[in-house]
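Dear colleague,

As promised, here are the two records you asked about, laid out in our usual form so they can be pasted straight into your sheet.

NAME FIELD: protein one
SEQUENCE, THEN STRUCTURE:
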Amino acid sequence: MKSLLIFIALSASLMPARAERITFAVSMGSAMPMTEFQHETLTAGLLKDMGDALARELRMEPDYMVLPRKRVEAALMSGQADLLCDLRPEWLDSKQWIWTEAVFSNNMTIVSRADTAPLARLSQLTGQRVGTVLGYRYPEMEKRLGAAFERDDAITDEQNTSKLLSGRFSYMMSNSLYYDYQRKVHPKGALLNRAVFTIRQFDTYCALPPNGKLDADKVNRAIIALRKRGDMQAILDRYRPSR
């Protein structure tokens, strides 16, 4: 009996330790190329690819907590989630979060169909409806065009793109990650103009709670390592049209 107990103890000590888990809070309101869901489970997209790569670098196992947009910040605050990614400080209500190195670089753009001349200056939009997403704010447009900024709201980016392609309007607010992906996969992607008007470049980051289990410096080292090895660029290239 004693020999059996010793054998069991030795066997247990030789078993590999189970990896600690890292939980990402993910908004179900986003879409490809950021997220793809099946039955409220995150199955693909930039956020999953980046999360999987970051977890591997940290030697942890990733979990994805899919929530409505208004509940993701609460999950971080309560400790249910460890990270909330692809955001900027001004997009969240709480100012207590610790922010990582940049994970994605993006561009706020105005896009059009291939049969439409790309913008040369914002003042050309005066008197024109511009495709926008309901609930989103476009401060640069509001500041520079004022009342001349005429929104044509859709519920999602996908609806907006359909309206652009059907000729409901000539110009649409977008961002380069989403728009490049549409040019790659949309059945009518060839009708989307490669030339865009860039309003500004912006980076997005991951937010950590101040008393969470993750060490911010360790997370930052992992993000920097992924970038230096070219892993982050390889992830982005999966969702862009061939050059």
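NAME FIELD: protein two
SEQUENCE, THEN STRUCTURE:
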Amino acid sequence: MLPVLPVLRGELPLMIHAQGLREIRSALKWSESQPRLRIVIVGGRDAWMLAAELAQRKIAVIYTEVFDLPARGSDAYDVQFSAPAVLHQAGVTVAISEGLDRASASGQRNLPYIAAQAAAFGLPTDAALAAITLIPAQLHGISDTLGSIEPGKDASLFTASGDILDIRSEVKQLWISGVEQSLETRHTRLAAKYRARPPAK
């Protein structure tokens, strides 16, 4: 059951899925008549075009379009890569997501690479990391337990061989709620199996 009352009381945000400029403008216009609601734009392909208004009204964006093609022939090739940076520089709170359509659920493992692409096109590295950790936790009302490493929070964290936004880095250890998890998968088992095969003669 959806937690409707916390949304109506402004305790949790109302997530409005909107991509195009017209959709986002319509959502903003409608929200003017709902002053108690906390609005978050999800998707937000053209949100960069309204960055100043979104910042002024303190409306966050969960941006899902980093690797999408430009929507218009007049758009620069990197318009989607740089959109999170444009929003951040305007003062908009930005989270980054893979989205919910197509194969996005299984693609959540690619979040560090999506954030890294946004960082390569102007989003500060600390903001890119927060966009896939602390900010989503804040927007969903669970930052008291998740999203950052602080006393009193769930010990869900990992160690890596380098910068997690660098595709060359490897996750070395993982804990969920303080319990260390095995990193063994079908892929690691197959890799070990074929590394141990007899050399070809």
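A couple of things worth noting about protein two: The chain has a mean pLDDT of 91. The chain is about 35% helix and 15% strand.

Best,
R.
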